[in-house]
Amino acid sequence: METQKQEIKQLCSKFMLTGMGANLEGMVSNAEKQGMGFMQFTLTLLQSEVIHRQSKDEAKRLKVAGLPRSTDLGQYDAEKNGLKTDRLAQLRELNWIDQLFNMVLMGPSGTGKTFLAAGLCRDAVKAGYKAYFRSMEDIVNTLKTKDFVKSQMMEYKRLLKANMIVLDDIMLFPLEKNLAVAFFNFINHIYESTSIVVTTNKKPTEWAKMLDDEVIATALLDRLLFKCEVVNLTGDSYRLQNRKTFFES
């Protein structure tokens, strides 16, 4: 019996049926206890492999998504930041991604913009969408280096095929003219095929200053706001409210 189990595990490894191989002993034991028939046992083996592969694929996609550590919207107190619970539930249904709607999350620092955006991105990945979370700095670095760094060109092509992209802290810092043009070209390329979620503490009227070009800023906003939901988050900074200290109280 043990020899047969080892041989089956070796064959599972050879044919890359890792889920089936890892769960073999437990499933054999369970089948013996339940008096399971051959057909049911075969089905159970194959189902375990499917579940294993789906879990492995999801973990890989979550890693590529580039999410921050804390992204579970089950822990998000929407009402605290001025977002009604039913609105949050509607956002988490993700229908707006299929409809190619964009979203601008505005508000002061610490009001949950990044957490909400990252949480929606996590939901999207788990629902099977190609969704990515990138800071404005990440995007700018990709645009600057994609033509001579292979990994950045791969990243650029990945983003072009996305169903959803979060651009965190957009317009946090000024862009040189050539980078402003490159950023506009990127948005122009994806806005008709990708839902774009933007977090910012800058009003749209201030974007022209960051880009040093009112024409580019207007054209950029025109594309982002064409089909867009603007969500204004309010309240005190979570970080300041929960400031930590190493001194004893």
Concise description?
The chain has a 5-stranded parallel β-sheet with strand order 2-3-4-1-5. The N and C termini lie far apart (63 Å).
Tell me which CATH architecture of the largest domain applies here: 3-Layer(aba) Sandwich
Tally of helical segments: 12
Question: Which class best fits the helix and strand makeup?
Answer: alpha/beta
CATH topology of the largest domain: Rossmann fold
Helix content: 55-70%
SSE order: HHHHHEHEHHEHEHHEH
Low-confidence stretches: 238-243
CATH first level of the largest domain: Alpha Beta
The radius of gyration computed from the alpha-carbon positions, rounded to a whole number of angstroms, is 24 Å
Assembly classification: single chain
Strand content: 5-15%
The figure for the number of domains is 2
Record the strand order, biggest sheet: 2-3-4-1-5
For the record, give the distance between the C-alpha atoms at the N and C termini, rounded to a whole number. 63 Å
Structure commentary:
- The chain has helices at residues 2-14, 18-34, 38-65, 85-92, 95-98, 113-126, 136-145, 150-160, 177-190, 207-211, 214-225, 238-241; strands at residues 102-106, 131-135, 164-168, 195-200, 228-232.
- It has a 5-stranded parallel beta sheet.
- Mean pLDDT is 83; it is low at 238-243.
- Helices cover 56% and strands 10% of the residues.
- It is α/β, with parallel strands linked by helices and 249 residues long.
- The protein folds into 2 domains: 2-65; 73-241, 3-Layer(aba) Sandwich (Rossmann fold).
- The termini are far apart.
- The protein is elongated.
- The longest helix has 28 residues, at 38-65.
